[in-house]
Amino acid sequence: MTSDGENRAPAPAGEAPLSPERRAFVVRVSLGLMGLAAALVAVPIVGFLIGPLIRKFPDIWRPIGKAENFSVGKTVLVSFRDPSPMAWAGVTAETAAWLRRDPSGEFTAFAVNCTHLGCPVRWLQDANLFMCPCHGGVYYSNGTVAGGPPPRPLFQYPVRVNNGMVEIRTSAVPIG
Amino acid sequence: MNKVARAAMKIVQPLIDAFEERTGLIKMMGDLARHPVPPDTGWWYVFGSATLVAFMIQVVTGIALSTSYISSSGDAYQALQFITTQALLGNLLRGMHYFGASAMVLLVGIHMTQVFIMGCYKYPREFNWVTGVVLLFLTLAMGFTGQLLRWDQNAVWSIVVGAEQAGRMPVVGTMMAHFLLAGKTIGGATLSRFFAFHVFFIPAIIFAVVGIHLFLVLHDGISEPPVAGEPVDPATYHQKYDELIEKRGVPFWPDAAWRDVVFCVAVVIAIVVLAAIFGPPKLGPPPNPSLLARDPAPDWYLLWYFALLALIPHKMTTPVILLAPLVGVIVLLIVPIVSNTGERHPRNRPWAVGAVIVIVMMIATLWVEAIREPWSPDFTAQPLSAGIVGVSEGPIANGAKLFHEKGCEYCHQISGNGGHRGPDLSFVGDRLTKDDLTIRIMNGGYNMPAYAGNLSPQDLEDLLIFLGSRRHPGSAASGGK
To answer: How far apart are CA B371 and CA B374, in angstroms?
Structure first.
C-alpha cells in the first residue's frame, strides 16, 4: 500500500447511475410488475362483483294455491318466494304476480312490474284494468297496453296446474 | 394563570418544535392557509368551501349511522327503525344526513352555476371544471344510493326502476340491470351492494377527485373576479394574474376565508336546525316487493328527471333514458373546450346567462309538475257525492257511480274531485256531444283505455247521461257543442 493510498478518502459507496437503456428496462419491468400485482388483486375483486351475473338461479315451480280457490274471471294478487333466497334476504325474498283465471279456466300470471319503468301496477277489479301509479300506464285485463307510456304488454310468468295446485315458475325481475 | 400557561408552553413548545422539525407540517399548512389570493373575491366564492363542508358532514354523520345500520336486506329496516325511534339522537342524526345530502346537492349546483356564470372555468382552469363535473355526478350518485339505503318499500321499488332504466341499454342492458340488483331479483345481495357503493366505492372516488380539485385550486390560484371588457388571453393571463397577486393579493386566511367560515357555519346551523325541526324522511312500509301499494319516487334532487320521463312523448323514453345523461355529461365537459378564452363577465356573456336561466327554469318547472304528478292516476279519489252529482238515484247517479268504479275518476276531475291525467270533465257536457263522448269512451286515446267490451250498453248510456249533465249553470239543457 503506498503512502498516496493511505491518504486517499474512501470511495463513496453505492451503485453507479443506470445507463439510459437499463433505466428504460427497469421502468418497463417495474410498471409491468405493478400491473401484475394490480391484476392479481383486481381479478378476484371484479369476479366477485360480477358473480351474481353468472350465478345460476334454478327456476322453481312455487305452489300458489288450489286451483279451485281461484274464481273464474277474477284477477288476484299472489305472492311467492324467490328461487333461491339468501338466508338474510328477509321479506325482500318475496315477490308477487297478478294471477288471472280466464273464463276458459286457464291461468295467466302477470308480472307486477309496469313495462315502462318497472313500478308496481295495480289491478282495478271494477274497471277491469291494470294501472301504474308512476306515470299512468294502463293495461287491459289480458295484459296488453291500453294507454300511457308502456312500450309492451305486461310480462308473464309460466304457470301450470299440478295435481290441482296452481304453480308459478319463478323468474328474474322482467327487464325491458 | 399566565405563569401556568408559560410553564405549560415550556413543556409543549419543545414537543411542537420537534414535531415540526421532523414533519414540516405546521409550516406547510400555514403556507397553504395563507397562500395569496386575488382581492375582492367576496361572497360569491364561498360555495365551494360550503360544498366541501356539507360533504364532511355527510362523512361524519354517515360513519356514525353506520355503527348501527345493518346492510342486510332482511334486517336493515329494523335497524333503521331502531336508529329513528330508539337510538339516542338517532332521529336527529338521520335528519342531518338527509339535509346534509340536500345541502350538498344544492351547493354543488350553486357552486357550478357561479363558476359558469363568472367564467371561472376558463383558461387555465379548464381541467378543474372537469373534476367539478365528475364531482357533480358523483354527488348525484351518492344521493340516489343513499336514498336506497333508506330500506323501505320506496327504496325497493326505486331500485327496480333504476334497474329497468339500466335495462334499456342495448346489448348489455339486462346484464347492467342484474349487476345493480346483484342478482336476477331483489334479494339478500341487493342492499349490501348499494351499501358498498354508497359508503366505500363512491366516497373513495370523491375523496380522490376532491383532492385533485383542491390541488388545482392551489396550482392555478383562485380565479380573480371577472371584469367586463377584460377577456382571458392565454398568452398574457399568467403574467396579469401574477402581477395582480403580487401587487394586490391577500392571504386566503383570514382575509378571504372568514367569509367561507361564516357561510359554512350558517350551512351547518341550517342543516342541524332543519334536521331538528323536520327530522329525516319517514320510513315507508317494509321492503317487501310483494306489497304493491306504492308510488315510488326519487328524493327531490332527482324528482325533476322522474317528471321528465313522464312528460316526454312515450316513444322518446328509451332515447331520453340512454342519451340525456350522456348528452348532459358531454355538454358539461365540452364547455371549457369550446369557450376557454374571451370574456368572463356575465354582462358580456348573454348566452351563458340565458342558458343558466333556461336550465334553472326547466328544472324548476319539472319539479313543480313532479310535485303535482298530473300524469299519475289518483287512486285516493272518492266516489262523487250526491251534492256534486245533483241527484242520488236514476241514470245520472248510476253514471256517476260508474265514473268512479270504472276508474274514470282516477284520471279525470269533476268539480275538484279526481285525477289530472286526462281533461277536467266538470263541464264536458258543454264541449262534447253524446256521439263525441261515445267515440272517446269506446275507442280510448293516447293515454286512455278503450272501454268497448268493458261497459254494458246500459252502463254506457248512464255514463253518457251523467257526463252530458256536467254543464255550466245556465247553459242549454241539451245539445252541447
So the answer is: 9
User: What mean pLDDT comes out for the span A160-167?
Assistant: 95
Least Cα distance to A109 among A165, A48, A158, A38 occurs for: A158
Q: Residue B417 carries which DSSP code?
A: B
* Distances B429 to A105, B103, B399 between C-alpha atoms, Å: 42, 50, 13
The C-alpha of B188 sits at a distance from chain A's nearest C-alpha, in angstroms, of 4
Which among A89, A96, A135 is the nearest to B187, CB-wise? A89
Q: Please, which residues bridge with residue B232 across strands?
A: B342
Q: Do A131 and B377 touch (CB under 8 A)?
A: yes
Instruction: Evaluate if residue B456 carries a pLDDT over 90.
Output: yes
Asked whether this complex has an ipTM greater than 0.90, the answer is: no
Cell digits of residue A29: 419491468
Q: Decide if A92 and B191 are in contact by the 8 Å CB cutoff.
A: yes
**Torsion of Cα atoms, B196 then B200 then B205 then B208, to 10°:** 180
Give tens-digit pLDDT for B278-325: 999 999 999 999 988 777 889 999 999 989 988 899 889 999 999 999
CA distance A106 to B138: 50
CB-nearest partner of B177 from A79, A116, A175 = A175
pLDDT at site B430: 94
Contact between B164 and A77 using a beta-carbon 8 Å cutoff: no
| B163–A173 CB contact, under 8 Å | yes
Angle between helices B457-468 and B434-443 (to 10 degrees): 130
Query: Which three-class secondary structure state does DSSP give residue A107?
Result: strand
CB-based contacts of B274: which residues, under 8 Å, 6+ apart? B95, B99
Whether A146 contacts chain B with CB within 8 A: yes
Ramachandran assignment for B394, one of left (phi > 0), alpha (psi -120 to 50 degrees), beta (any other): left
Question: What is the pTM (predicted TM-score) of this model?
Answer: 0.89
Residue B470: CA count within 13 A, CB half-sphere: 28
- % of chain B with per-residue pLDDT over 70: 99
C-alpha cell at B4: 401556568
- Interface contacts A/B by beta carbons within 8 Å: 185
B182·A77 Cβ contact <8 A: no
> What's the confidence (pLDDT) of residue B478?
45
A165 touches chain B (CB under 8 A): no
Give the residue on B whose Cα is nearest the Cα of A113.
Answer: B160
pLDDT digits (tens, 9 = 90+) for B204-257: 999 999 999 999 999 999 999 999 999 999 999 999 999 999 999 999 999 999
What residues of chain A lie within 8 A of the CB of B406, using their CB? 126-127
Q: Report phi then psi at B431, rounded to 5.
A: -100, -35
Residue A3's pLDDT band, with cuts at 50, 70 and 90, is very low
